[in-house]
Specification:
binds protoporphyrin IX containing FE; 10 strands; 8 helices; about 325 residues; alpha+beta; Catalase HpII,  Chain A, domain 1; ten-stranded antiparallel sheet
C-alpha cells in the first residue's frame, strides 16, 4: 500500500452540509453575473463575454496529451493509462474579465478539453500562479465584487470586508501573480484547487518542456496581440510542449483541500510527471488557424466537465460548477461545449 492510499482526507462543507453549501453557490453565481454585465458595459461590448478570462490569446483543436509509458501505478486512473494519446482543444487567455492589451500586467490561463470516448470530455483549467488569492469561493467572489468599485477606495473597502491582515495577504498574492508575460510557451500553470485522482486528492502543474518553448529569439512584441503573435512565431517553427505533473495530498496542514490560498510546496508534495501536452507546429494565424481559434472560443470549459474519478474538490472548486455554468449560459457558449 502506498502512503497516498494510507492517507486520510476529507471535504468540509461551508454551512455544515453539501446541500446548505450548494444553496450559497446560487448567490455567488448571481454576483459573478452582475460583474459580467459591468464588464460588458466597461468594454463597450454588444454581448456578454466570459466573466473572467474574456480574451482568447490562442485556440487550437489539434493538441494531444501523450501519456508517459511509465506512469507510476497510483496515477494510472481512468484515461490516464500508459502510452495513451488523447486529442485536446486548448484555449489560452488573459485572466481579466475586460479584454486588455497583451503587454498589460495580468495573469494568464490555460483551459484544456480532453476528448474522451462517447462525446465525454475532461476539462483542466489552470492559471500561471501557484495559489489563489482567495481561500474559498465566497472570498473569491467578494474580492472580485470589491475590485469592481472605485480604485481609490479599493483597499479601504477590502480591509472593511476582510480585516487588515487578510486584505493585505490577498493584495500581495494578486500583485505577485499579475505581471507581463514573456510568452505563453514559457509559462508554468497550476490548477490551484484540488481534485480527485481516483481515490486521493491532487493538484496539477504544467511546465514548458521543450527548449524551443523558451527560445528567447522570439521576443514578445509590445503590441495589443503580442502574446498571440509571439506564440504564432514559435509554433510556425517548432511544436510547443508542456509536461503535466501531479502533486499528491500529504496532510491537511501542508496540502489543504479547503484552503486554496496555501501553496502545495514541491518540497512537500513533489510533482510526478505523467504526460506531455503537445501542440503541433502550425500557423495559427492562417485562415484555418483563425477558424480553429473561433471554434475554441465558443466552447464552455468547466472543471466539472470531468469523469467522477476526477471530481473537483474543496469549496473553491465545488462552487465553480454552478458559477461557470451561469457565466457560459449568459455569453451563449456552444451547447456542444
Ligand atoms: C482557484 C482556481 C481557479 C483557476 C485555476 C481558474 C482558472 C480559470 C480559467 C483558465 C478560465 C478560462 C476558461 C476558458 O478559457 O474558457 C476561468 C474562467 C472563469 N473563472 Fe476561474 N479559475 C479559478 C477559480 C475561480 C473561482 C473561485 C471562480 C468564482 C467562483 C471563478 C470564476 C470564473 C468564471 C466565471 C470564468 C468564466 C467562465 C465562462 O464564462 O465560461 N474562477 N478560470
Amino acid at each position: 500500500m502506498t502512503n497516498i492510499e494510507k492517507s486520510t482526507w476529507t471535504e468540509v462543507y461551508d454551512g455544515g452540509s453539501a446541500e446548505v453549501e450548494r444553496e450559497g453557490f446560487h448567490q455567488l453565481a448571481q454576483a459573478m453575473l452582475d460583474i459580467q454585465e459591468k464588464n460588458r458595459v466597461a468594454a463597450g461590448a454588444p454581448h456578454a463575454m466570459r466573466t473572467l478570462h474574456s480574451k482568447i490569446l490562442v485556440g487550437v483543436t489539434n493538441a494531444e496529451l501523450r501519456m508517459d509509458s511509465d506512469i507510476p501505478l497510483p496515477f494510472q486512473v481512468g484515461h490516464f493509462t500508459p502510452g495513451a494519446v488523447i486529442g485536446a482543444s486548448i484555449r489560452f487567455s488573459n485572466a481579466s474579465g475586460v479584454p486588455k492589451r497583451d503587454d498589460a500586467v495580468d495573469m494568464r490561463g490555460i483551459a484544456i478539453k480532453l476528448a474522451l470516448p462517447h462525446g465525454q470530455s475532461h476539462d483542466i483549467l489552470m492559471t500561471n500562479y501557484p495559489v489563489s488569492h482567495a481561500r474559498n469561493a465566497k472570498q473569491f467572489v467578494q474580492f472580485a465584487t470589491i475590485a469592481m468599485g472605485d480604485p481609490a477606495t479599493f483597499k479601504e473597502r477590502l480591509v472593511a470586508q476582510f480585516g487588515a491582515d487578510e486584505a493585505m495577504r490577498m493584495i500581495t498574492a494578486v500583485m505577485k501573480g499579475m505581471r507581463p508575460s514573456a510568452g505563453l510557451q514559457t509559462e508554468a500553470f497550476w490548477s490551484r484547487g484540488a481534485l480527485l485522482w481516483g481515490t486521493f486528492p491532487v493538484r496539477l502543474v504544467l511546465r514548458p518542456s521543450l527548449d524551443s518553448n523558451v527560445d528567447q529569439s522570439e521576443a514578445v512584441h509590445a503590441t495589443a496581440d503580442g502574446l498571440r503573435e509571439g506564440f504564432a512565431n514559435v509554433l510556425n517553427a517548432h511544436p510547443i510542449a508542456f509536461r503535466l505533473a501531479i502533486q499528491s495530498y500529504v496532510d491537511e496542514e501542508h496540502t489543504p483541500i479547503e484552503d486554496a490560498a496555501v501553496e502545495w510546496l514541491e518540497s512537500v508534495a513533489p510533482p510526478v510527471g505523467v504526460g506531455t501536452l503537445l501542440i503541433p507546429s502550425q500557423n495559427i494565424l492562417s485562415e484555418d488557424g483563425l477558424r480553429a481559434m473561433a471554434q475554441v472560443n465558443e466552447l464552455a470549459f468547466n472543471p466539472w466537465n470531468a469523469p467522477p474519478l476526477f471530481r473537483p474538490l474543496g469549496n473553491i472548486n465545488r462552487a465553480r460548477g454552478k458559477v461557470y455554468g451561469a457565466s457560459a449560459r449568459a455569453w451563449g457558449a456552444s451547447p456542444h461545449g
